[in-house]
Amino acid sequence: MLEKIYVVFRYEFRAFDRCFGWSVERLRELSQCEAIEEITDIYLVSAGTRQYNVKIRENQLSIKKLLEERNGLELWSPCLKLDFTAAAADLYKHVFLSLALEISELRHTEMSLEEFLKDVVVPHPQITAGQVFKRRFRFLLGNCPVEVVEKVVNGATIQSIAVEGEDPGDVLGIRDMLRLADV
After folding, report:
1. What would the pLDDT profile of 22-32 be if each residue is shown by its tens digit?
2. 63-95: pLDDT as tens digits
3. Do 159 and 148 contact (CB within 8 A), yes or no?
4. Where do the domains of the chain lie, and which CATH numbers do they carry?
């Protein structure tokens, strides 16, 4: 099923490192952790573009488009959520266009997630699938959601901190408050 998305644009700042010791301690002094969430995603990437974020979470394909990069922030727009089992034509159209690839031959009318991964993603020479396990610690500072994420990407561990908000000034202020500007 194709889901219509009502969009609230948010600016994002995201940093990656092995450990954000001081920044995480400061965040915990300023706000309580509101939720802890564990999820596993499959990200689909190609060398052809980084304008789109294509991932699969909980049996649903999700695509976001990068609209703008400014002052170390990214402005993303959600553009598609598609539940599996899905029409093969919709999967091919949206995934291949988002990854800047030519659409290959359709062999199915509908595809389950397993069929899509096995028959389309894995054999395609220009698509790389990365499995990402995330443990998210969610906070709220002012009007901005902040999350500290422990990630395992294809077996390698990394940490990230993300700050999101509708006002880029708020996001930059929190980034600076947590001393993340130079990360």
Report:
1. 999 999 999 99
2. 999 999 999 999 998 889 999 999 999 998 999
3. yes
4. 2-177 (2.40.320)
Query: At 54, which amino acid appears?
Result: V
What's the per-residue H, E or C state across the chain?
CEECCCCCCEEEEEEEECCCHHHHHHHHHHCCCCEEEEEEEEEEEECCEEEEEEEEECCEEEEEEEEEEECCEEEEEEEEEEECCEEHHHHHHHHHHHCCCCCCCCCCCEECHHHHHHHHHCCCCCCEEEEEEEEEEEEEECCEEEEEEEEEECCEEEEEEEEEECCHHHHHHHHHHCCCCCC
- Tokens 């294509």 sit on residue: 54
pTM of the model: 0.86
- Amino acid identity of residue 110, one-letter, is E
Q: What is the dihedral of CA 10, 74, 66, 83, to 10 degrees?
A: -50
Distance CA 147, CA 135 (A): 10
* Structure token pair of residue 91: 């999967």
Pairing, β 144-153 against β 128-141: antiparallel
